[in-house]
Amino acid sequence: MSTAAATAPAARLRAPSMLLTLSEGRGLMELAAAVATRPLMMTAPKGDGHPVLVLPGFMASDTSTAPLRKYLRDLGHDARPWGNGRNLGRFYKMRDVMRQQLADLHAETGRKVSLVGWSLGGVFSRYLALTNPDAVRCVITLGSPFSGDINATNAKRLYEYMSKEGDPDPNDLTLLAGDLPVPNSSIYTRLDGVVNWRTCIAKPAPNAENIEVHLASHLGIGVNPAALWAVADRLAQPEGHFTPFRRNGPFAFAYAG
């Protein structure tokens, strides 16, 4: 990644409260809601068959993204797992692996790849868009901490222990939080019990947007019906075009206006 000069240090943020963290169990209810509202979810805009690489969050595997990938496949997308086992972090080790995986998928299909990343998977997705823009169609992140004080998370100590990596290069953080060369949508919730929601906010840009989902959780946003609808809507945009998300459809009430 480039060594462009870092900006001033981000303002210190607090990790989510213990109350929010303890409420993360509602993710199971979000999964149940997705099952119950399946007929409504299937009225989302259909895909054009282009490849979509879905990246799991920290300590998660492809099992966690299976419902999301099935939903996207049923809508007509070529949704693929990341296939690297459990995501143990290791950004500086995994980024070259992910670049090769993206290049291989791009070469295999002959089409640009959309990236959907949950939590840490979204951080990887933004990195791939910065380093391999010719292979990326768009980036969609779900509860991903890429902006501001990324240490404002209740998973910081576990990440440091599992990844065996020190603090990230400030220049890398600056680039990840900056403009992307492709359309990008950050889907987040203010009731995130793992990362401070402010670290999920993309800076204003003609090809960037933030979509807030009411009542979602960090552990459930990847199966939340309203979040999944938004993902499908964003993926259905024609390649090379970006129009901000319109908060309508069967889950319009779930989005912040």
The number of distinct helices, counting runs of at least 4 residues, comes to 9
Q: Give the N-terminus to C-terminus distance in angstroms.
A: 36 Å
Regarding quaternary structure, what we see is single chain
Largest pleated sheet: 6 strands, parallel
CATH homologous superfamily identity: Alpha/Beta hydrolase fold, catalytic domain
What shape does the CA trace take? globular
Class by SSE composition: alpha/beta
Main-sheet strand order equals 2-1-3-4-5-6
Binned, the helix content reads 25-40%
Average residue pLDDT: 94
Uncertain parts: 1-8
| CATH fold category name | Rossmann fold
In what range is the share of β-strand residues? 5-15%
CATH architectural name? 3-Layer(aba) Sandwich
For the record, the count of structural domains works out to 1
In sequence order, what are the helices and strands, one letter per element? HHHEHEHEHEHHEEH
- Name the CATH class: Alpha Beta
The value of Rg in angstroms is 17 Å
The total count of strands amounts to: 6
Domain AB hydrolase-1: 57-147
Pfam families: Abhydrolase_1
InterPro entries: AB_hydrolase_1, AB_hydrolase_fold
Organism: Sandarakinorhabdus cyanobacteriorum
